[in-house]
Amino acid sequence: MVLAVMWWGCAPAEARQNGHDACREDQLDSSTVNAEIHFRQHGRHYIQVSSDMKVEVPAREWSMASQLTFSTESPEYRTAMHCLLRGSDNSLRKTEWRNGNPVATADGDKVTVAYSSYTWIKGYGDFQLGPWKITRDKKKKNKWEVILQPSTLQKARWNVMAELGGLKFKHYGRPWFADKTKAVWATQPLKRLCPAADLDRRRKLPEYLCVEVDLPWQRSLALSWDESLWKPAGIATWWAFGSGVLALAALRTQRPYVSPAFGTPGSRWRIGGFRGERGEGLASSVLQWALLSGAVALTLLLFLNDPPLVKLRERTLICIAAGLTLTLVARPWYGGASPTVPSAGTDESDGSKGHRRRQAYAVIGFASVAAAIGTLVIFGHQRIGLPYDLETKASSLSGKVGYVLMGLTTVWLWLAAMAAWAWRFAREGGLVPARWISKWGKAPVLCVAAVSALLGLIAGGLLWCLHWTLENQWKRSAWLSDASLSAEHEKYVNRYLANFSFTDLTWIFTYSWFLAGIALLALLHHRFTIQRAQAIRKMGNIPLGPDKPDLLLIAALFALTVGMRGAKFASNNAQYGIWFVLNIISLFAVLAAGRRWSVLGQMGDLFCMHTPGINKRSELLEKAHQYRNLNHQMQLLDQGRAGGVTSEQLEDQLRGLRQWLVSRCLKKNPPAQISILDVALAWGPDAHWWSNALRAARLAFCFGVPASVALLYLEMRDLYSGAQLTLEPTAIPSVVAGFIAYQMAWAGLGFVLGAVWRLLPGRRSTARAWSLAFAYAVPALLGALLNRYTDVAPRMLVLYSVLTLLILTLTSLWLDTSTLSEERLYWPSRFALLLSIHRLRGLSGQVAWLLAQVAVVVTILKELIKR
Hints:
Layout: H1 2-10, E1 32-40, E2 47-58, H2 75-85, E3 103-107, E4 110-121, E5 127-129, E6 132-136, E7 143-148, E8 157-163, E9 168-171, E10 177-178, E11 182-187, E12 209-214, H3 217-227, H4 230-253, H5 280-303, H6 312-330, H7 352-379, H8 397-428, H9 434-442, H10 444-477, H11 486-498, H12 500-510, H13 513-538, H14 548-570, H15 576-597, H16 599-603, H17 605-609, H18 618-638, H19 647-663, H20 676-683, H21 689-717, H22 719-724, H23 731-755, H24 765-789, H25 795-819, H26 830-838, H27 843-866
Parallel strand pairs: 1-8
Antiparallel strand pairs: 1-2, 2-4, 3-4, 5-6, 6-7, 7-12, 8-11, 9-12, 10-11
């Protein structure tokens, strides 16, 4: 990678000398120009502006006309196009975007050139595209001026149209046509149509046409938000709420677990070699990360100021020190063995201290070497041709190599910190396979070397993305420029190389909420291990569902995964923190209401907690099988195919099954509408809620793959996102991370569904799925209302919400087949088993409900693809 960047630094910027004196612009006076500008504002966060310019050049009068039809890569084409569109203008077009080079077609004695470009008003600066310039009136905050100021073709015949897309505007002069949406001018040649008093303010351009546009408050709010302190405050709120909930969860899980059926407060455990007085080992790690992540996020926000409060040299030193500190504080060599793997050893087991010492030396050694390389570049700046502050406009090849080493080591350290914390949480929470722990103990240097190489490849990939997108950005901005901009190219490259580490570590830390999800899972698995060990040791029953500390962890996981993926479609990041809290509150509200109306809740606690052997489920499943067979025979009897069985016999057996159910509730008569099949399906496919959650997470992960692909495809179809893909340094990594994030969201959605499966209301599985979808729909509805209020289309948010419900529905139906998986031998396929299960539970309604969701998804997809 360093060698590639050395080639990058040595490769000269594309240079081409235009002969401005040979352009013969006077021969273009008989040309005809049709210029249009279009504003699109409805349903968008920012206004999109597009320019369409068509120039008809007399082929016989302009000596360079034939060159316009040459290959777009030829010097002749570019020279002629520069003379036609730019003339003596050689400035960078940083705000102009194009889908391709202008297209020239020859038709008899004329050559027609079609030149299209577009931009977005995302700030208060000046925007230039095609022959137009858009600038804000400094005296009037919401007033913008759209000025036609071509650098060539001043004396050509101009036909101009401004289509404002519903914006309020004021035009100058007498347009040939005007209404509430557009104005059309036909001038020969271009005339001065703006007030004469404004000449000095508009730099006394020789000829121009202008329109004054009044932005609506919705668009002005988005612009002012991005420029205000409220934007970093909104991000800080998200980190404050997220870190606060994570810290609260860690503190609550430090309390001793007390089963509803057994156990006493203050009990001390030591399960499977898992260390812990109240489980403070893992909880302390999570609490440390909650505090550190919040502090780091606030520090990064301070760096985002423009101009930054800290210079590049000090900022880089802080980033290197922070990456090294985060890695060492994580102490990936520390932590007890997996609670589920007693043989893995504890902190005090045979040879464990020696293993930990070697692991610590390996981690500290690799991290220190990386930090030393970056630090040596900074303090040895003079030897490699860099100034003291590292902020240089030009540098030698050795300076570029120094920038690359400094950036790679900094990014590597931050990646190593994230990996170290992830390993710490997963290991202490018992999420790591035993063979990985064994390998880590026997060959720590080899493990650290392998992980370091993988992280190095990731850092190198990020650098390659920077290289590729920088060159694309330069080609876009310096389009049709000549050799005088080669020095600008050098400054451009050096500026981004110097800030490579900070750009990418900010992106890396944006996705550090993955660690919060791993920490929450680790805490949940830790508590599950304690519950299961106590149940085995005391021959008690496994509890119905997660208790209050578990529910807080589950709700936080729900908000982190499902909620935060939907928040990106809701509005700007101001409401991220509020959205996070709303998702937690909404889920708790659904569970509080659902406990009373859930199937097992209506059966009563006595059925779940005090019936011997009920958690083995074998007897319950056998009774459910008998119940389904009897109902099937009743249907055959109604059709005249009884086979020698009378109605009285079948009814007696059904009454016997009902008595069995009543007896298991200690004579408390359960609701008549609840059957044995309802109870079996409500219990789920496994004995413990944790096992149900894992099974549902795997199912939702698989069902969510098409949804993730569809959402990413629609995002890339958006003109702005699609353009950023080849021009933003972190765009391609964001696509990869976005797919992983969507998959984590679906997996988290399934995990939450399986975890609270027994607590959700509804007899049918699809009703339980709907109730969990409702917990997400409440914040989503508020987000959709906010979108409508700010004139932003909520289609993507609606699509995400419907996909959430669809994945929940499919997962719930599949859980039913998993619950009765022992009956697969009676049916040719899982689908046939599913049909047999729901034949007694309103099959037509279930199918109609599922098809309705699919129809809504397809309709929204078609609508978004047509845009």
